[in-house]
């Protein structure tokens, strides 16, 4: 009964962890992929107002024109690039799905730096494309030679995600220039997922959009304003691609939620510096207090660290952590390797302290 393409999607790894986790009573939870603060009050009020004002119907398929115009202006400032066109989508997942739907033919190769955000691999497989993983361990960077070696005559695009889920890595300007140089040589399209671009803690953030022209940007508000349930994202880039995405949106998602589009309209630049400062402190706390037995890169962005399990596989270490009441995610969910695990520091300081204590205690337990 079930279509063959479903065989291309496997969710067994994460399910096993969730099954184990379901048995815990009051776990220390460092597995959550969303901010622990609530949506800012003025944005909530604007959403309530939008609903009361009757903005409850379908919007135009591609999004309400005022939001599209304001976003294009903001992107021009933030990303130092003027984008030809934009579509408002159902979260970044909606943008990603539409983009891959319009771009991937069966057999097309998609270069994905490993570790990667989970959906990339599964969506490419779902469309009968071929994920080509570029191993970025241990520093999670992509060298020119690694990228060039991955490119073939059937390469369709490269997916970049900076700041990254699960590593928190931000590519610096030099790394991006290297990527842009190779991409330009092969006229490669780059799909850049910048959903965490507000969550940066050290140097100034550079987007690949500044350095390279053939980019399809996907981003959104789920993490920025902690509104993962509102389903609001967008994609900006070449008109030819965006127009095709609008065609498919018409027959699938229809439009992004109307109230959410109106609610965000006057808050695109809402100040989140206090929350970002908080997360920087939490990043520092966890990084500084994790036992040196954990090999770990200091994340510059997002709200994750991706340390190496001190012994065994990432999966076996996570199972041990769960036995000790700590929820974390095995690296194999985000990687072809099973050596690391993901910690989310989007939680309270008290949870973080308890989590670090459990992690450090596990080093000598096994
Ligand atoms: C890198 C990355 N891209 C996209 C998404 C999906 O975002 P949304 O909830 O807006 O669909 C996530 C969510 O965890 C993510 O980490």
Brief overview, please?
The chain is an alpha/beta fold and 366 residues long. 39% of the residues lie in helices and 14% in strands.
Total of DSSP H or I helical runs spanning 4+ residues = 12
Helix percentage range: 25-40%
Could you give me the name of the CATH homologous superfamily of the largest domain?
Answer: Type I PLP-dependent aspartate aminotransferase-like (Major domain)
> Which structural class do you get from the secondary structure elements?
alpha/beta
Describe the protein in words:
The chain is an alpha/beta fold and 366 residues long. The chain folds into two domains: 128 residues, Aspartate Aminotransferase, domain 1 (Alpha-Beta Complex), CATH 3.90.1150.10; 207 residues, Type I PLP-dependent aspartate aminotransferase-like (Major domain) (Aspartate Aminotransferase, domain 2), CATH 3.40.640.10. Helices cover 39% and strands 14% of the residues. The protein is built from twelve helices and twelve strands. The strands form three sheets. A seven-stranded mixed β-sheet has the order 2-8-7-6-5-3-4, sandwiched between helices. The protein has a three-stranded antiparallel β-sheet with strand order 9-12-11. Helix 7 links the parallel strand 5 and strand 6. The longest helix has 17 residues. Bound molecules: pyridoxal-5'-phosphate. The site of pyridoxal-5'-phosphate (PLP) has 13 residues, from helix 4.
